[in-house]
Amino acid sequence: EAGVAQSPRYKIIEKRQSVAFWCNPISGHATLYWYQQILGQGPKLLIQFQNNGVVDDSQLPKDRFSAERLKGVDSTLKIQPAKLEDSAVYLCASSQAPSTGEQYFGPGTRLTVT
Amino acid sequence: GDSVTQMEGPVTLSEEAFLTINCTYTATGYPSLFWYVQYPGEGLQLLLKATKADDKGSNKGFEATYRKETTSFHLEKGSVQVSDSAVYFCALSALGGTALIFGKGTTLSVSS
After folding, report:
1. Which residues of A have a CB under 8 Å from any CB of B?
2. What percentage of chain B has pLDDT greater than the value 90?
3. Residue B103 and residue A43: Cα distance in Å, rounded?
4. What Å distances lie between residue B106 and A100, B22, B55, CA to CA?
5. What 3-state DSSP class applies to B29?
6. Which of A13, A49, A105, B29 could link A32 by a cystine bridge, Cβ 3.0 to 4.6 Å?
7. Residue B38 DSSP class
8. Best mutation site among B44, B46, B93 for testing chain A: the one with the most A CBs within 10 Å?
9. A9 burial via Cβ count (<10 Å: 0-12, 13-18, 19+)
10. Residue A62, class by beta-carbon neighbours within 10 Å (0-12 exposed, 13-18 middle, 19+ buried)?
11. Residue B107, Cβ neighbours under 10 Å: how many?
12. Which residues contact A87 (CB under 8 A, 6 or more apart)?
């Protein structure tokens, strides 16, 4: 079974530029999560989707971050414009049974904002 | 709000030593508790979990017991191997399938 796919794996941009990350979850997993992991900290939820609907985006900085999952499968997370403090690893995870708390994580995208 | 606190690292051990990584939590209600592990160059993966008080999760020689009275979920292994070197994250999920809340992670380095 293929795991969660993410691209790109690494990205370097200048502040005020825009960037987009892509995630393809495990087939059949209706729930998709985006987390932000700043160096030395644990992952922090940005947004949770159930199919193509948003379940929780309370911690998403909506003035600069946006995410979509239009067909209920793959998802895109965008940052526009980027700030220095957005430098982090962006993790995508999916779950077939969110009530269990078991999530499957992709390898992440490491973003560096200069 | 809900939170997880785990011991600061790095933890450096010799092969076959005993491992304990402490984890305590704050939550309303009765969350499910997890340990996730991140091996070098790999993504986070579930190591073990427990869903109610006094449950013991176990996998690959690692164990953790859900202690409601002390709000703890400490990770233990009797004899670590070099291949156990990784970053370990304690996490909780409140009832209803909410997203995971993670601790800061503890880096374990095991030398032969």
Report:
1. 3-4, 31, 33, 35, 40-45, 48, 56, 91, 93, 95, 97-108
2. 84
3. 8
4. 24, 9, 23
5. coil
6. A49
7. E
8. B44
9. exposed
10. exposed
11. 15
12. A38, A39, A111, A112, A113
Give buried/exposed letters for A33-56 (b at 16+ CB in 10 A, else e).
Answer: bbbbbeeeebbbbbbbbbeeeebe
What's the count of helices (H) and strands (E) in chain B, helices before strands?
A: 0, 12
Q: Which residues of A touch B91 (CB under 8 A)?
A: 42, 101
Mutate to test the interface with B, among A45, A105, A110 (most CBs of B within 10 A): A105
